[in-house]
Specification:
The protein is an alpha+beta fold and 280 residues long. It has helices spanning 6-16, 20-29, 34-51, 83-86, 89-104, 111-115, 127-138, 179-193, 205-221, 226-244, 259-265; strands at 59-67, 72-80, 143-150, 154-158, 164-172, 250-251, 254-258, 268-277. The chain has 11 helices and 8 strands.
Length: 280
């Protein structure tokens, strides 16, 4: 049997990030061959991962990639078991790599299809292999649970803890130097205030009519005469729209203008919105 030196064990540990004893065992199993030991460790990790597949993955983070000049935007959800792992630099890097690969690669219909693709950050490895290697180091189950790609100019924002994120598709003057920053600011607004619709016309008519009926009944209870109730209701509906419609909401970074006015001043239109919360 080949002698397993401390230097060889240390080199394998630096290569894999795994504990010294596991690296020593892998080298012993593989006759001191480092490359074979890496494969052996990976296979052992996959076995362990399959045994833990039923663990709950209630933590994790959302990641976005958006660049109007590239005409694409993505949002993904990568889940894990615990907050410390979700907040680790390695986990963040993997989530961001997945989002960027989805955007700049060929695209994918399912998370499994995406994980089979080569990583943009590490072209010699697939995203699935990187995920498995990270499991090997952290011993937590990871799940790529949701992916979404928009083939059009986009801006995006993810909250610092990865629990909330939004992707905004834009049209209009998307080649402007500030288009990405404007779209990112709108995405941040969406994350903060969670509008129900982009435009008034997008709201469910039944919801609007229900609100109109509630406001009308309230006005009558206030003793208002019928001849002015209609005008009152229109004014109060504007307040309702400013609470739940994106383009009517006061912009979170400058409440003296609406989101619609902010976007229009930059020559942009908001055409679609993806607003995600971790876990659904």
């Amino acid at each position: 049997m080949a002698e397993i030196t401390a230097a060889a064990v240390m080199a394998l540990r630096e290569k894999t990030g795994l504990p010294m004893m596991e690296c020593k065992k892998a080298l012993a199993e593989c006759g001191g061959n480092t490359e074979q030991a890496v494969d052996w460790l990976r296979k052992q990790g996959i076995k362990t991962q399959s045994m833990r597949a039923d663990r709950e993955t209630s933590c994790g983070r959302l990641a976005v990639f958006a660049d109007p000049s590239k005409g694409v935007g993505t949002i993904i959800e990568l889940k894990c078991e615990s907050p410390p792992v979700a907040g680790s630099d390695d986990f963040k890097a993997l989530a961001n790599d997945i989002a960027k690969t989805l955007a700049l690669g060929p695209g994918a219909a399912t998370p499994a299809d995406l994980l089979a693709q080569k990583s943009l950050a590490h072209p010699d490895r697939t995203l699935g292999e990187l995920k498995d290697d990270l499991f090997n180091r952290m011993r937590e189950v990871f799940e790529l649970s949701r992916i979404k790609r928009i083939d059009g100019p986009c801006g995006g924002y993810a909250h610092h803890d990865g629990s909330k994120a939004a992707l905004i598709e834009i049209a209009g003057n998307t080649s402007a130097a500030n288009a990405g920053e404007v779209a990112k600011d709108v995405a941040m607004h969406v994350v903060a205030l969670a509008p129900q619709a982009i435009r008034k016309e997008d709201l469910d008519p039944a919801v609007v009519e229900k609100e109109r009926a509630i406001l009308t009944e309230a006005a009558r209870n206030e003793g208002k005469p019928d001849n002015i109730i209609a005008k009152m209701i229109e004014g109060r509906l504007r307040n309702f729209f400013s609470q739940c419609v994106l383009l009517e909401q006061p912009f979170v970074k400058d409440d003296k203008q609406s989101v619609g006015q902010f976007a229009k001043a930059a020559g942009l239109e908001i055409t679609s919105v993806e607003n995600w919360r971790l876990g659904g």
